Amino acid sequence: xxxxxxxxxxxxxxxxxxxxxxxxxxxxxxxxxxxxxxxxxxxxxxxxxxxxxxxxxxxxxxxxxxxxxxxxxxxxxxxxxxxxxxxxxxxxxxxxxxxxxxxxxxxxxxxxxxxxxxxxxxxxxxxxxxxxxxxxxxxxxxxxxxxxxxxxxxxxxxxxxxxxxxxxxxxxxxxxxxxxxxxxxxxxxxxxxxxxxxxxxxxxxxxxxxxxxxxxxxxxxxxxxxxxxxxxxxxxxxxxxxxxxxxxxxxxxxxxxxxxxxxxxxxxxxxxxxxxxxxxxxxxxxxxxxxxxxxxxxxxxxxxxxxxxx
Length: 310
Fold this sequence. Notes:
Elements: H1 2-55, E1 58-59, E2 70-71, H2 75-81, H3 84-115, H4 122-130, H5 137-148, H6 155-163, H7 170-173, H8 175-200, H9 204-212, H10 217-228, H11 230-245, H12 249-254, H13 266-275, H14 280-309
Antiparallel strand pairs: 1-2
């Protein structure tokens, strides 16, 4: 009897060991499936960034192939740190990105509230609202510059002729305002998409209870719905910050950074250092600085949002 119990105990132990081994093997196999994707992402994103870091320590002028490339240390970084032009463009980047991010968040939330209703033709309205997000930024910039803001044959110019007033060249006289407007028009649908998904994930029973308890629209929106989609708001702000900072095409085809450098942002400044100044090392250093500052801003913003949501 004791021998039989001992055999059964050994069999149970072997069975448990086999189950644990199979489970562990299955988990390891699942992780192995991720390796190709991780490798592709690393090669496509991190390798170019590492090359950029290497370039940032080299003095390399594309317009002077007769001058050899030499190691420059941190001189490329020091060039921007002591440059007043860099600090001015940094402030312009923060101004354009910050205002655009705030407007995208506020109007995106209000638009998501408007679209979170079951009314006739709501699907058509949602499609039209999300349309600008799927248009290439350079195409959007060309459309706004030529067919809307043009003071002669654009919609704005034609309207000015009909109403007998002198049209203002907004792109020349108010370039930062135009860039912010185009940023909001281009990226607000992204915020609407994420926040609308969060609103539609709220339980209908909770909404019904809110109505039965006599909660008004303001209380229901800002005290109940907004806290429930705080995670979606956080995701939208984090990703929106990255998208807005790196935006380049809209500036290139509308203001081209002008007049002067009044509508430059850091990514456009990288383009200027590469194409116009032909300074590859400085462009690499500026790109690294831009990435580092973006990560710092995301970290600060994330902490502030998390602190307020607790």
